Amino acid sequence: MAELTIDAVVFDVLGTLVDEPAGLRTGIRSLDPSSALDGPGTERLLLLWQRHIEREQRRIVDGDRPYLPSDALDREAAEVVARAAGAEVPAAMAGPDAVESLARAARRLPPWPDTVAGLARLAEHFPLIGLSNASRTALLELNAHAGLRWHQALSAEDARTYKPDPAVYRLAVTVAGLPPDRLLMVAAHAWDLRGAQALGLRTAYVARPVGDPPTSSDRFDLYAEDLADLADQLGVS
Question: Sorted alphabetically, which PANTHER family does this protein's record hold (predicted)?
């Protein structure tokens, strides 16, 4: 720990601090109040959503598609899911209102059990910066719904691209006014940490059931079981 000296902590939000799949499952099931979309049906539609978002964000990062904020991509994903649900379960045929409600499910995500207490504990010792691919509006609702505590919350919308584009991580470096190696990026996604690492930030992987685990070739500064473990490793009482 002696070689890791940091002055601010930067947190990914989706998947790291909030359980994104759980919130999306709730939205998907609301398309059909019966049990028709339980179990495998819900998981199939969730995968459709996730693949759409990942593919379209990557296209934007690669310059193959003009920038759109996460709200617009969420609505696209909701339309894809609603069409697929209607094809499989006629009762789930969704009109514009149902699609809009499903899209907004991406902003109503529950925090992990350790999130709120972990952020509060860390906030007593470090400036905390949220850095999310969610739009400004979505991030505001996410923070309020999950009870997330920040000193500053930054959206990739300000860089008009998505992580892992270096421009997004640069937002946190600029706001902090610190050298990159004085910032610790915390995420449950190895791809996110690699992006931060490429810009010179220090990195901490936090294990989550829905994350992207490190590979054998990854070398992050810290590996934590949860935020309490992370705080312990950072010497936070």
Answer: HALOACID DEHALOGENASE, TYPE II (AFU_ORTHOLOGUE AFUA_2G07750)-RELATED (PTHR43316:SF3), HYDROLASE, HALOACID DELAHOGENASE-RELATED (PTHR43316)
- pLDDT of res. 2: 40
Q: What is the mean pLDDT of each run of 10 residues along the chain (237 residues)?
A: 82 97 91 66 92 98 97 94 70 65 93 98 97 96 95 97 98 97 98 98 97 95 98 93
Task: Count CB-CB contacts under 10 A for residue 184.
Answer: 24
Distance of alpha carbon 3 from alpha carbon 202, whole angstroms = 11
DSSP string, 137-177: HHHHHHHHHHT---SEEEEGGGGTS-TTSHHHHHHHHHHHT
Residue where the block lists tokens 């934590």:
224
**Cβ contact 114:17 at 8 Å:** no
Which pLDDT value is given to residue 1? Answer: 39
CA 230 – CA 150 distance, rounded (Å): 17
CA–CA gap between residue 47 and residue 206 (Å, rounded): 23
pTM of the model: 0.92
Residue 148 CA to its chain's centroid (Å): 13
DSSP-derived 3-state class of residue 64 = coil
Strand order in the sheet with 202-206: 152-155, 128-132, 8-11, 183-187, 202-206, 222-224
Tell me how far apart the alpha carbons of residues 101 and 172 are, in angstroms, rounded to a whole number. Answer: 31
Q: Residue ranges of the alpha helices (H) in 6-125?
A: 20-29, 40-61, 70-88, 96-104, 115-123
Q: Report in angstroms the alpha-carbon separations of 10 from 16, 42, 129.
A: 11, 32, 5
Q: Are 108 and 145 in contact (CB under 8 A)?
A: yes
